[in-house]
Amino acid sequence: MIAANGGSIEGVVDGRETAAATVVLVPRPSRRAVQSDFKSAPVNPAGAFSLRGLAPGRYQLFAWDKVPDSAWLNPEFMSHWEGRGQSISLEPGGTVNVRTRLLSIED
Known about the structure:
The protein is mainly beta.
């Protein structure tokens, strides 16, 4: 469901191999039990992505190459990446434009 006051993120991922990349918006730790608060989107060949209908709040944005589906829901997986995402704060109905870097799952 998309909320009337949902925010959006428009962005570009910097990196060599963005065609297989996935962008994931991860909520703050106290909200991670709510799987619907996680949002993901593919990155197009030009590196662009869009996330819409987002609940207001604070998040970390990650762009990974070849990340396994739903790996970000696993606390053990996320413990390796904590603090390496880009901090995002969404206001009701707001749009955030970002440029983020591609993270290699092999790091």
